[in-house]
Amino acid sequence: MISIDPNDCKRCGRCARVCPAAVYTHEKGEIPVIAKPKHCIQCGHCTDVCEANAILHPDFPTENIHKVQRELIPSPQSLMELMKSRRSNRTITPAPIPTEALSDIVEAAYTAPTAENSRKVVVTVLQGEDIQAVEDATMRFFLRLAGILMSPLMRPLTKLFLRNLYNEAAELYRFERKWRKGKRPCTCNGTALVAFSTPRSYDFGWQDCNLAYQNASLMAEAHGISQIYMGLVQTACKFIGRKKTARLLHLPKNHKLYALMALGMPAFYYPNYSDKPRKSNL
Ligand SMILES: Cc1cc2nc3c(=O)[nH]c(=O)nc-3n(C[C@H](O)[C@H](O)[C@H](O)COP(=O)(O)O)c2cc1C
Q1: 40: in domain
Q2: Residue 282 above 80 pLDDT?
Q3: Do 192 and 175 fall within a single domain?
Q4: Phi and psi at residue 190, in whole multiples of 5°?
Q5: Continuous segment of H or E residues that includes residue 263
Q6: Are 175 and 260 found together in one domain?
Q7: Are residues 152 and 248 in the same domain?
Q8: 32 and 160 housed in the same domain
Q9: Coil, strand, or helix at residue 253?
Q10: Is the pTM value of this prediction over 0.85?
Q11: What is the domain extent for residue 60?
């Protein structure tokens, strides 16, 4: 049950003003009324906006409410520097990712906004042999596809109608050579894979997972850890089937993969960043 401590409440009504679910009503100078507690979406706006910590909310016990430390928030300039210098640095080494950094990355993912605060995103971290299994499944899928599309019979049609795929075949065979030598080109030799999934039936899986991805990505960058979006693996997963994808990535039951990130310690950092040309201006 949500309640308001009448002794602490300053009667400012801010809780009623910010609540997106209209749980509270407020008359000027009065203690707000908790009119529709069942509408609460557990977003915590009311507890966070209350200067007096007068709202007692079962989902937000006082030990989980923290004063914002404004001095720790990056300046626009430092945030811009982080975003501009962030790179999909593919020089990943076998060095382990520090445990604390990994847990910061996961925590950052869970801080992202979700539609109606539904918080259905689950972040799954894979390491060791599990990554090899993802690599192998991806590589085998693309080799099978290439085997069909580049067969003597299909090759002319592929060249004519699937020009992009045809052009990418050379890249695939380069990947295959690396893979046969024990490298993991599809997963960029990542030492961790981070999967973002939501229940299959949920409507905002793409949006919520990719917002979580971006938070995690910037946190990784702040820790000096490489992160690369695993589009190739995600494409393979579309075709290899739900069950196999869920098994490979250890997804919760009935979950769908919406984003996948490879992480690892880079061999070196880039000393420069260049302004990204906007394609619309090219
Ligand atoms: C949806 C998406 C899919 C991607 N898939 C891959 C991938 O499978 N392998 C890879 O090495 N990089 C992948 N990338 C990384 C892009 O190639 C990279 O972001 C882009 O070249 C810009 O480089 P930057 O991230 O260093 O700025 C992907 C990026 C996005 C947004």
Answers
A1: yes
A2: no
A3: no
A4: -55, 145
A5: strand 255-266
A6: no
A7: no
A8: no
A9: coil
A10: yes
A11: 3-64
CA nearest ligand 1 atom 18, residue: 88
| Distance between first and last Cα of the chain | 57
What is residue 281's predicted lDDT score, i.e. its pLDDT?
Answer: 61
59 in any annotated domain = yes
CA of 25 to the centre of ligand 1 (A): 47
Instruction: Return the residue whose CA atom lies nearest to atom 28 of ligand 1.
Output: 229
CATH of the domain at 233: 3.40.109.10
- Cα(87) to centroid(ligand 1), Å: 9
Is residue 235 in some structural domain? yes
Token pair recorded at residue 215: 């938070």
* 175 and 92 belong to one structural domain: no
- Ligand 1 neighbour 236 (Cβ under 6 A): no
Which atom from ligand 1 is nearest to the alpha carbon of 188? Answer: 11
Does one domain contain both 92 and 218? Answer: yes
Mutate to test the pocket of ligand 1, among 196, 214, 229, 263 (most ligand atoms within 8 A of CB): 229
Taking the mean position of all CA atoms in its chain, how far away is CA 54?
Answer: 34
- Per-residue model confidence as pLDDT tens digits over 70-117: 999 999 999 999 999 999 999 999 999 999 999 999 999 999 999 999
pLDDT band at 144 (very low <50, low <70, confident <90, very high): very high
Domain count, the chain: 3
CA dihedral sign of residues 109, 110, 113, 116: positive
Question: Is the minimum distance from the CB of 62 to ligand 1 under 6 angstroms?
Answer: no
Over residues 233-275, the pLDDT tens digits come to 999 999 999 999 999 999 999 999 999 999 999 999 999 999 9
Interval between CA 113 and ligand 1 midpoint (Å): 23
Label residue 166 by pLDDT band (50, 70, 90): confident
Mean pLDDT calculated for residue range 121-145: 97
* Residues 27 and 145 reside in one and the same domain: no
Alpha helices by DSSP H, listed for 97-154, are 99-110, 129-149
CB 79, CB 62: distance < 8 Å: no
154 found inside a domain = yes
Do 32 and 145 lie in one domain? The reply is no
